[in-house]
Please model this.
Amino acid sequence: MASPIEYFRDQEARGTCNRYVGELYFQGHRGTYTSQARTKRGNRKSELALREAELWGVAATVLAGFTFPTEAIDQVWKTVLLNQFHDILPGSSIHRVYEEAEAGYADVLATAWQAAHAAAAALTDQSQAMTVFNSLSWGRPALVELPDGVEGAVNADGETLPAQVIDGKTWVEVTAPACGWTTLRLRSGPALLDSERALLDSGQALPGSGQAPRLTSSDTVASTLRATPTLLENELLRIEFNAAGEITRIWDKETGREWAAGVCNSLKLYKDVPTTWDAWDLDSMYALTPVELDLHATVEVVATGPLVATLRVTRKLNQSAMTQDISLRRGSRRVDFHTVLDWQESHKLLKVNFPVDLHTNEAIHEIQFGYIRRPNHLSRPFDADRFEVCNHKWTAITEGNRGFAVLNDCKYGINVLGNSINLTLLKAALAPDMTADKGRQEFTYAIYPWNGSLAESAVVREAYDLNCPVMAAQGAAGARSLFSVDTPNIIVETVKPAEDGSPDIVVRLYESKRMATQCALITSLPVHEVIQTDMLENGDKKLPCQSGKIELEFRAFEVKTVRLRLVH
Model:
């Protein structure tokens, strides 16, 4: 019997299959992209924490005899899936539901991170070193906080890492390998003692290091960062601010062009009283009912480099108090806005706007395993109906040779009108939950302007980087990359145990930029056999693997699942 896909392909070839092209957009319940923000944050954070638990659990099982907590992980995955049920994750249930949902997410996160750290402990020797774990399938620089009393660190190549003290904590910049880890040797006291510096000058090894470090400590790293209450600047971008902490200029030093077409990071509050369903809906006329905000703010510099520069903006948004840390790292084109709000509004909608100097007729929104293009205008009725849409980790507008994206770590509602990207941050429904979203809210959004085509951009990687910070654990484990891919548009989304209870490892990858691609999945694990399966892990198509290199071919946005059988 033909599979459903084969059947419909045959019917389509015969011209007997009705086919709809484009988005099946539901013209209602647009508020469900935003209502009950803590539950939506719990959903995003839980999905990603379980991703970490599965990857490091698999690594520790294979390499260190770790016992993967299958039953516990299975149970909390079911909690995540239960909370994605109708009216829970959409934010349209009664108060008790969200008490239970938030408690459930707390349990999921505790279980997932306990499993991830237990796996890390099995991989490390529990010495006074520190190992940094990166779950993404590309190497990346990351800021890592050192333990109290530690003032410096040396990486696996013997280099003293550049450091910065922020609020009494020492941070170092670490380059972590793809789907792998690297070990730091921690140093208390000054970064280098005079006796150690003398050893370095003579080319000898430091005691216990086994090799002579190449000195690149923080006192020799020239800061490329500048920070004042009205400025953040690195070697790539110059960001200027007004007294309210809004952006008045985004100057691109690489091209000598201005990105901002108006005031960016502009927080907008609107009355939000849907005509029918309070928590469910968002009516199109909300934009006609703005709420005037006091622009008075306190802006202070809290970090000046050499690794990161940060401004702290404190202001009132109507009845709500906000603290926002705006950060720019050296060598980065991304600006992060970490925001904490005491949200005390009723029937209000909060958005943040970024009008930029780009000409386009559509916006690009990330969805599961890819993206979708939607109009950024109201020309036709169906276009006008899509005045609020959903995205996952990013939305962008582009020209042929450049683009601008707004990233987020837990927000789903957004609209793009003309050249303005407008991320929806919070809603304040009163029914069916009178206390919906009241109290502390925490989230991070970011901007990422780039030069070059979408295909050449790092927008997908930057969004993952924002959502998936590295994990640090005590002890040494050397340095190793378990998996990597040789093409940047292919993402290793999942590494997990096989569902059938066998010792096999399942790796799920996808093509992220709508480009047919040939690539190689590279692994350092001892692979005996590779089988391509469907998402249910069924299949028997064997793939060649030579010296840990698995050649794969992707169609645009294709998802592939491979099962690895290891040498035991």
